[in-house]
């Protein structure tokens, strides 16, 4: 293995000569097919643990490296954590955490090249033999891009962190505080990895007196628009909610369709009202989130019948920078009412036109928009039925947990469907709730000493590196993708988090997040990761110069400046 060394570049900067070693680590990791929720997650943790255990430092200090199982997980998965204690004179307990996930999304999109998806060199050769979009062709032939699942998202980021762990294990005398390496599983689905790792970080804080000063996440960055040449670093991260709508109508035989109300009509109007709606973009610190978009829209009929559906179910991705879960519920109740009114207006207009053509006399339409949050519905049912309702629903939830085919989203829908049966008033309605965990927003503004020090360290690092790199390195406030950054710091207050829990039917059974553990860690975090394009797509690729050389050096400088003084 290549010995970590320094490369002197123009100016007064000294940069780590790290490209070959980070490339070596990246290829090792990419070649392990570690798709989320598969055995591969376990395999990559074993390999990574074995690799780190071969470093001389960890042979001397084996207790500084752990392979830690995830908690309350139906799968046998592990995180890998390691730390180096600095021995530089004047060192303190200040500790920086390097974070990266080792799982990937699936490889079905690689179609005929699926067997090469995790073999970067072979994949590149195969891609060059087929028609490619112009930009992809240019990158494939340049020699400066690595293709393959996980090359960008985010095994090259983990490789960068691994390089720094190895470097400081060889040079602890250059480290003024402590360095923690965390490679977690399950980032691409439910964040069980990072949520489990909170316990290990807490334990090390107690045992080794670590004072967690900052965290650097190494997830990928990408162009924000066509022709964008910037390489971005992000302070904090976007938050993500999954607002969901259980919609009931009035069932009828399709031969008497105007005697009922199809919930799919309301669902369609709801999607028309919410999908891509710029009014639902959240602006903060001069940045704007992407608008919501639907991730599922269906009725809940299990089989074909000629009766209209009893209920429909839709949910939407929803990003936030400053809005709380309570804010989003209020906002979407208004949107749901607009959609309901639009659906009834369209229904009336078409009903009257039909009656004119058929020679029928239209009846008066009695339905009115009716919107309830899950918490409001539960409050009504607890008041009406008390313990009877509570005991029945707890038993129902327990029985649902036995069905492994239900993810948290469909589990939540079934709970709402069951609760709906208890309501005396069965007139058409929309029940609004959350059906997945809330990934909290993180806002890093310099509001305390730790945030201010991290921001100053980042600014200084970019200023020093920029003369050695031709592309602009730009710092922005919010990482625009979902990441595990959401679970190392927290910007929401307890009331906001309570709104997310109280309106989540799966909370406490299928889903639980210990936000108190996140708040206990509450370390300011930035994202400084590899650059590339087409993450989660078959042309996923990582630009090597920035990712393998600039990123490790930037992270090293941030680490150094956070810990010094």
In brief, what are we looking at here?
This protein has 565 residues and is of the alpha+beta class. It has 16 helices and 21 strands.
Description of the molecule:
The chain has 565 residues and is α+β, with helices and mostly antiparallel strands. Helices cover 40% and strands 18% of the residues. The chain has 16 helices and 21 strands. Strands 3-4-7-5-8-19-9-18 form an 8-stranded mixed β-sheet, with helices on both faces. Strands 10, 11, 14, 15, 16 and 17 form a 6-stranded mixed β-sheet that branches. α1 crosses α6 and α13 packs across α16.
Lay out the secondary structure:
Blueprint (H helix, E strand, L loop, with lengths): L4 E4 L5 E4 L1 H12 L8 H15 L2 H5 L4 E5 L8 E8 L8 E8 L18 H9 L5 H9 L2 E3 L3 H20 L7 E7 L7 H17 L2 E7 L13 E5 L3 E3 L1 E6 L14 H12 L8 E2 L2 E2 L4 E7 L11 E10 L4 H34 L12 E3 H12 L1 H14 L7 H13 L8 E6 L14 H17 L7 E4 L17 H9 L12 H7 L3 E3 L4 E2 L7 E3 H20 L2
Parallel strand pairs: 5-7, 5-8, 8-19, 9-18, 16-17
Antiparallel strand pairs: 1-2, 3-4, 4-7, 6-21, 9-19, 10-15, 11-15, 11-17, 12-13, 14-15, 20-21
Helix pairs in contact: 1-6, 1-16, 6-16, 7-15, 8-9, 11-12, 13-16
